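Hi W.,

Here's what went into the run:
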Amino acid sequence: MKTKLFLIIYSAVSLLGLMMLLSRENVYVVGAIVLGVLLLGHRELWSLIRHRRMPVIDERVRENLSGAMKTTGIFFFIASIVLLIAGNFDVFKNISTSLIIAGQLVVVGFVYLLSYHYYDRVRPSLGTRAVRVLKVCLIVAGLSLSTAALSIVLHNFFSVWIKAEEGFFMILGLIVCPTALVLSLLAGFGVYLKGLGASFQQGDPS
Amino acid sequence: MKTRIKEYRARLGLTQEKLAAMVGVRRETIIFLEQGKYNPSLRLAWLIARSLGVSIEDIFTFEDEESAPV
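Here's what came out:
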């Protein structure tokens, strides 16, 4: 009990110290770190508020945590590469670096939250078909995002080459791909919410 | 994987919460185990069987035609 209390106090003091050190200029990063801590520790915080004790970590939780960490790590790696490439092409020349880092940290936190609950509740509650639909939605979203980026590059290339506004890649990159991205994300989120809702209705209290 | 945890648990008058506390897992783990949506480790299977006073074979049945013994 003393160790737990010490850890909580230590974490709070460290977080406050970090906030004080960073808050002078990088206020976005501080906000992102606080939000990230809340997202990463949502299980513990929820259990402490609801049951006044730390949550049980059993083998299933360990498997889910490891799955979520893996997914989040892969996402963080890909997002970092994309941001670095985009930064090299001066895409973010009017946006401050701290805001970009903050945005990435928050998105990574949300990816962790979504993937943890996917492994913990959504996947076991959905049927094989629904899981397949969810995977297809995510693949379509990823493909449309990369195709949109590629289309813009190809549009610029062909426009310079033919010395006129190129039409096909412009429509593909600015209308078709973003629409596919939004639709697939909405459909995927719908399936996810369906699974999450079903998981809360499962299990009798007996 | 088919389980008879619910049946044996009901015989002993145990709730999911109580069984979960006995074997040191979350209630959700017991729920998914009972529904056959989670394959437990050998350790957890053994702990559950011991808590219910039966053998592992009594509560877990592996359904796979290809690997079924001839």
